[in-house]
Amino acid sequence: MEQILEILEGLHPEVDFETCKTLIDDRIIDSFDIVTLISDLSEEFDINIPVEEIIPENFNSAKAIHALIERLLEDE
Fold first, then answer.
1. What residues have CB less than 8 Å from 20, skipping those under 6 apart?
2. What contacts 27, CB < 8 A, 6 or more positions away?
3. Within 13 Å, how many C-alpha atoms sit on residue 56's CB side?
């Protein structure tokens, strides 16, 4: 989870990603951020995020992103 928070804070240091649960809904992160985030997460965790997993529910909070990564790592 620490790595995820570091990546997110690199995008928007002013946001409290530990408590925010509406990153997509409130447009805190946009489509460009998502592209960067997917690239950084793929590199950091050595995973491939399939296009069908790129949905708002998976990126609305650090916790949701963590759950997505855990699920992808288990499926490998």
1. 26, 28, 61, 62
2. none
3. 10
pLDDT of res. 76 = 75
Segment 7-56, tens digit of pLDDT? 999 999 999 999 999 999 999 999 999 999 999 999 999 999 999 999 99
State how far the Cα of 46 lies from the Cα of 31, in Å rounded to an integer: 22
Indicate the CATH number of 2-8+21-75 among 1.10.238.10, 1.10.1200.10, 3.30.565.10, 3.40.190.10: 1.10.1200.10
